[in-house]
Write a structure and sequence with these properties.
The complex is a heterotrimer. Chain A is an alpha/beta fold. Helices cover 17% and strands 29% of the residues of chain A. In chain A, the strands form two sheets. A five-stranded parallel β-sheet of chain A has the order 3-2-1-4-5, with helices on one face. Chain A has a five-stranded mixed β-sheet with strand order 7-6-10-9-8, covered by helices on one side. Helices cover 19% and strands 33% of the residues of chain B. Classes of the chains: A alpha/beta, B alpha/beta, C alpha+beta.
Amino acid sequence: MSAYTYRVRSQPNYPSLKWDVSGARHLLVILDLDTNSIAELCRSPCPGPLEILVRGEATHPALIPFNKANILIHSFASMDTLIVALENALDQTTMGLRLYALGHEDGLWKCNKAGQKVGMSRDEIQLAQASTTGRPVYCVHCGHHMNLIHTNITVCTGCKRHLLVRDHFSRLLGAYMGFQIDAESPGLIPAVEEVFP
Amino acid sequence: MSAMRNVVVSRIQSLAPGIKEFTFVAPPGEELSRFSAGSHIVIHSVLKGKPHHNPYSLLGSPDDPHWRIAVRRQEVSRGGTAYMHEELKEGDTLRVSEPINLFPLVRLGRKYILVAGGIGVTPILSHAREMSRLKMDFEVHYAVRSAEFLVLSDELRALAPGRFYTYFDSEQERPDFKQLFGNQPLGTHIYVCGPSGMIDACLNAGRAAGWPESHLHSEKFLAAEHGEEFTVVAAQSNVTITVASDTSLLDALEEAGLNPPCLCRGGACGQCEAEVVSCDSEFEHRDIFLTDAEKSSRKKIMPCVSRVKGGTLILNI
Amino acid sequence: MSIPFRQETFRDDFTYRNSAEAVRRFPFPFPQDAYMYSVNIEPHVSVDPGSVYEHTFDIDEHYIAECEDRAITLGKTKNRFLALPHMMDAQWDTLELLMTSMARDYPDLFALSRDGAKWHWMNKPLNIDQHFVFGDTRTLPYAPLEYISRQGQGDFILLDQREGNLWVDAGVVTTQADWSLAFDVGMSFNEWHGPVPMAAEIGVFDRALKFLLMLQHGAPVRRLNWTMTINPRLDTSPEHYDQWGPDRASVTPENVGAKVHLRVEVQTLFRLPRSNGVLFGVRCYLASLNDLVTNPAWGQRLHRVLRDLPQPLAEYKGLVRYRQTAVDWLKQFDQSHS
């Protein structure tokens, strides 16, 4: 199981967010305030009614492009409260909505899961990575989930094994696979490097 | 070539003017397979020495030991429907394909809207049956020319009590697609089968209301319509064939002993896609498989439903 | 014809052995002296009486021992059977396909009688006598897929078809070549095969998917795949990599013939009639190098295939640590090699 020598096709790629003109209404979830991504998205006007859920202050300067009378911005202090609000919003709304999420990978796939829960398909949801490439990791040995892993090798907080973080990604779990790096030669741990800043 | 089997016609019943229902059973000692909602079979028949292959949706329950289809006699075009209406008798044996499903149920929806126009009710009935069994949230909208053409409605009404709506052209009634699409919860899927015009109106209303393609499902069986006589050259086999005006390109190839792969014979599955070497006339693409770009490239053709307007077509087969 | 079932293990003391007959019918997977991926799919029809291709689901001398090994794996680790909720009809389809095929092909071992939804299943080798109601999960001790997989050889994966793709939405996976159902469940066809090097670039998966989307009921297909395993271990799962990984470092010129096994998967694909899903059967056959070189043509060819295998494939299949040792040992069976 060597890693990073070729492209694994389960690894998501995250194109920049772009308004989907086939949608009738739009819901933007901002998990991490990223001025550049927001500015890029706002280069074209949103083609329909827009609502925004943001983790952080609604008054943050990155949100200035959205300071218009007809755009509703709801602000949340934590990921958990934001996801609950998202789930409620999706449960109540009707077909025609497009969901956009911007932020770190773990949060993106929580938003995706909220969409899947109400039967949304992949062509109704856009995800874009921002702020960090730190990875969510699933330990294939004990099933433990970890988040914001920045290094190629990490110690599982569940079973204490040294895990190599692979590129193989599960959208259902919202995580990359981690497997024991020294299984074939116990104790032989390669250098730990920060590869997901 | 798709898997084939024999069936015996056990019952023929008139449902409405020009519409008959046929029930098939397995020959003695055999069993018919179960099938999934939205499946069809292709019936092979020979009328006046000419082979015909027509797809028909299975409308019965997969738990029954028999298969049921309904056939509307088409005034022009497909000789197959004339054969079914005029030649076929109870007790006859037919050569048919095993079930094929190009209109399958997506099981992850939160709600389903079924829309039928005319004889397009047949796959809709099989979906309604499945959704009722699986206790899914669904409603049925069924449009016909006039009350006498409202076939199979008792079964539908029983499957969707209180959620079965009919529309009669004769009364200037038709489904209000704009309203239908306007207020459905996320996760709703629509399944529509009927005349081309109705399918297009339905899908366009869905798109206008912002529905994504993944939630819009339609089934349109295309007739291998007649056209002008033309010549086809199978370059690899070095065979030259005349395709008569009332024969499909695929049937002509098969009659000449060539057996290109094929499955649905309705321009949908893509199995019979053939590479064009050259063509000195105009294409008549009637399939729904090739993209518009592929169609205008003059490099591909689906022999089951498409043809050319005279002249010579050279295929790389 | 009755099969002499062996008492043997696929872990700990590894008492698994092939009889001469099992070696004779081993599905040796290389039609040429070199290996590369291809869409090597053919109709799954009965050919060559006595071969592994004679019956829809081959039952051989390892049947009872494999079922015992699966029961151990299912009991020890969670998530080796998984099924997303929308896969229940596909589970019943699979149970029906396996029961009807096994009872038809091995009437001395299995019997099925059906009275409407009331079914009676008898499995003589495993001493099972089960009355149940088809479609009613409460009448079986396990979910339908787990129930029948516990009585079958090889893994059974159920694919849902939607959005022009196939999705790995259920399975019983305990005899796998290093992939995790717990991790891969819910993936699309291409995501599932994501880690396989080189194949995607030459379009193998795109063509295979296009073909499988049109797979028809009554016309199943099969293909072969292969890798190598140290010791006759069925459960080489990522979950237990720490248990079997060290074996790879244990190969020496002295034990290579007995320890290194060619692991061949006879993969079968069936359209499931009622659910419109696809059953993907992965049946694993193991033969040691010692077994294989009893056939001179196999010894010669395996030497050449292993020697010339592209490095990315050797890495992906986990052969790097012992490939040279195996090639050196196999060389003696390739006299004409230059």
